[in-house]
């Protein structure tokens, strides 16, 4: 995600996740695999940020960047001293979600959500892959990323209506 | 002049209002509705308008939303009214298997379902395990399992479990007793001296299986503290809640207990989820399989279940047993407890018919042996409760309050003062005392009659 200028309205990650997901589905139908995979990852990123902000204590900085005020994550590309609470791209964002979710000591582990956290389905996804030539991208990759994005968006929606007990 | 605070309702009244408004919405829109209640008790109204989308700002939608919010305040969901056409994953709500039906659709009126999210207790009303696990011929594992449950503790349930195990073994059956009173284990002590307790227990299976590591556990042992009479080939086996570690081994029972109740994700991605009910079923099956391996298949499995409204009891009664014995003493708190429980079950109309046939009341008649009037009074109260809650209006039980063999008809245990203070470990022959046998005779013989026949002898 690119930092939003302070004058813009704050990002609506929940809505954006649905938009990206639906665009990804359209791209899949048109066999635009690279776009589909890229959009599926963005949809998942937005859903994770929506979950973190709505339910798990993350906040928006004045510049629009989401971060967790009590957590420090290793920056994926910088040295350890640059640890901060900022939420960026997948796949590192997934580890951040897992770390934040596991801090919570709630006996009602949500089934949908705990299944999601089991394994990072975006371990092989990179936001820079939109520049790839597509030769390594299989339908299985795209389907897995779409499914994970769907589950995340649904988990956010379910928690909004049934409460945070559906999350960890 | 100060502004008067908005009208507000308490928890129960808010839910009643939510259901009433849900009924009105089902009628007004002619669509199915789901009314949800979150962890804090806050309700939202979900209208399934997918076939015929409504406008979120249409006057009747706005009026329904405002009316619902005003009637349920402060137990109103973050979004009081949600249109299904605007949901991302509507089937998570409108097709959820966790819904309970409040009213069916009829004519132009949609159905009303409730969907609740609670901290614990979902198993009281959740659907039974879909797949049974055949064990032999016509009888599956569940048919041979008997849940021993009392809403209130301290009514002699564990002692009765030991007596029943002993009696059935005397009659040649292979009996397995599983201690599911995990927060307060004890039935194992009635069957075995501590030195004979196996190395592992039910809690070990639950934590080891969670990571796919349950093979090789030693879960069962043959009871010796209650030797069966010489002429019978019966056996009593038991599976304790927690095992006895070998010398030098450490066993942190609490650390395990605190981790067992959650529903788990699949062990292998792509497999089905592992709810607590399924995991407990697997633990009990593992105990049965070990008895079969060490000796023969158990004819009867007694599940000594903890008291109160707890997930273990919920799963054992509704999912895991073919016969559920409800230990009852004739006092108001016991009846009130069973009424709460039965009213929960009544919400699952699709399962309650099957469930009621598996229930039997057991009367723990403290200090009243021989007083037939007290037993009749208990029977009348049990009948009234079943008739109010679980019996269908056209059930044959409704017209037979005095039936000798109905779910509400109490099976008496004529408990007397003489039994108090008996220490089964110091006097292993105590079950053979004539006084003790008399106390349990009606109970043991009646339960035996309700059980499937023993496995045939191997040819």
Question: What does the oligomeric state look like here?
Answer: heterodimer
- Please tell me the overall pLDDT of chain B: 84
At the fourth level of CATH, the homologous superfamily of the largest domain in chain B is P-loop containing nucleotide triphosphate hydrolases
Poorly predicted segments of chain A: 105-112
Radius of gyration of chain A: 16 Å
The helix fraction of chain B, in percent, is 25-40%
Q: Looking at the structure, what is the overall shape of chain A?
A: globular
Helical segment count of chain B: 13
Element string of chain A (H = helix, E = strand): HHEEHHH
Give, in order, the helices and strands of chain B. HEEHEHEEEEEHEHHEEHHEHEHHEHEH
Number of beta-strand segments of chain A: 2
The counted number of beta strands of chain B is 15
Number of domains of chain A: 1
For the largest sheet of chain B, list the strands in their spatial order: 10-11-9-12-8-13-14-15
Biggest sheet architecture of chain A: 2 strands, antiparallel
* Top CATH class of the largest domain in chain B: Alpha Beta
Pfam families (chain B): CbiA (PF01656)
Protein name (chain B): Tyrosine-protein kinase family protein
InterPro entries (chain B): CobQ/CobB/MinD/ParA_Nub-bd_dom, DNA_Partitioning_ATPase, P-loop_NTPase
Keywords (chain B): Kinase, Transferase
Q: Any overview of this molecule?
A:
- Chain B: InterPro entries: CobQ/CobB/MinD/ParA_Nub-bd_dom, DNA_Partitioning_ATPase, P-loop_NTPase.
- Chain B: Keywords: Kinase, Transferase.
- Chain B: One of its GO terms (molecular function) is kinase activity.
- Chain B: This is Tyrosine-protein kinase family protein.
- Chain B: It holds the Pfam family CbiA.
- The complex is a heterodimer of chains A (168) and B (459).
- With 168 residues, chain A is an all-alpha fold.
- Chain A has one domain.
- Chain A contains five helices and two strands; from the N terminus they run H-H-E-E-H-H-H.
- In chain A, strands 1-2 form a two-stranded antiparallel sheet.
- In chain A, strand 1 and strand 2 form a beta hairpin.
- In chain A, helix 1 packs antiparallel against helix 2, helix 1 packs antiparallel against helix 5 and helix 2 packs parallel to helix 5.
- The longest helix of chain A is centred in the C-terminal third of the chain and has 24 residues.
- The two termini of chain A are 26 Å apart.
- The relative contact order of chain A is 0.19.
- About 5% of the residues of chain A have low confidence.
- Chain B is of the alpha/beta class and 459 residues long.
- Chain B is 34% helix and 16% strand.
- Chain B is built from 13 helices and 15 strands.
- In chain B, the strands form three sheets. In chain B, strands 10-11-9-12-8-13-14-15 form an eight-stranded mixed beta sheet, sandwiched between helices.
- The longest helix of chain B has 19 residues.
- Chain B is globular.
- Chains A and B meet through helix 4 and helix 5 of A and strand 3 of B.
